[in-house]
Design a protein that fits this description.
Elements: H1 2-15, E1 19-22, E2 47-52, E3 65-68, H2 71-84, H3 90-102, H4 105-129, E4 132-133, E5 141-145, H5 154-165, E6 170-171, E7 185-189, H6 194-212
Parallel strand pairs: 1-2
Antiparallel strand pairs: 2-3, 4-5, 5-7, 6-7
Helix pairs in contact: 4-6
């Protein structure tokens, strides 16, 4: 939220450091308002805003990204980028440019609405199945606690859910610098067709029923 970003901005100004922000999900948020750190007072010249079009345009394999920063920083970034990757394929850049120019606000609103529907369908299934979670306010992932279903560690549970339940999550420990903090967590992605999410929901409910019996 804005209050949290302001705290980060104050620290950057106090200690004269740069901020690098990841805005890849800037158009996929469900509640509130999306705040950009660079717009806060004093942060325009010390923020490197990194984003991309792969999520927004649902072309995740294209790897088309953007960086907005002050001229002296982008000059250095261009030099490093040139030595590391040279550049993304020109036709893909052209295609994304067309999307930026021609897709209006209704596209972005529709994108959010579609993902919100998918989120709600899948979260309903997780709740019915006994998982605990915080409702995601953006992106299309949910980190869920399976502690009421099993005392297994996250990797063992993930393998069993994939094998016996037909739904494959990612072990939660892989998202923590201290892996033990994710021992009862798994992550699901709901960027799928509604029909796929509904089928996954039925499998989760069936798996949970067997786990409780």
């Amino acid at each position: 939220d804005r209050e949290e970003l302001q705290m980060i901005a104050d620290l950057c100004l106090q200690y004269n450091v740069l901020a690098i922000t990841d805005e890849i999900y800037e158009h996929i948020y469900y509640e509130g308002e999306h705040h950009v750190l660079a717009t806060l007072e004093g942060m325009r010249d010390r923020t490197i805003t990194v984003s991309g079009l792969s999520k927004t345009f649902s072309v995740t394999g294209w790897r088309i990204g953007t960086i907005i920063a002050p001229p002296d920083l982008t000059d250095a970034i261009r030099k490093v980028h040139d030595f590391l990757t040279v550049g993304a394929p020109a036709p893909l850049q052209e295609a994304c440019a067309v999307g930026i120019r021609k897709l209006g606000q209704s596209y972005y609103e529709g994108l959010t609405a579609d993902y919100r529907d998918r989120r709600d369908v899948f979260l309903s299934a997780l709740k019915d199945s006994g998982f605990k979670f915080s409702t995601p306010e953006g992106a299309y992932y949910v980190l869920a606690d399976f502690g009421d279903l099993s005392s297994e560690d996250d990797t063992t549970f993930s393998k069993r859910l994939a094998r016996d339940g037909g739904v494959a999550p990612v072990p939660g420990s892989s998202f923590f610098s201290v892996p033990e903090r994710g021992h009862s967590l798994v992550r699901f992605a709901f960027c799928k067709k509604i029909e796929t999410l509904q089928a996954a929901g039925e499998r989760l409910r069936e798996f949970a029923t067997k786990a409780r019996s």
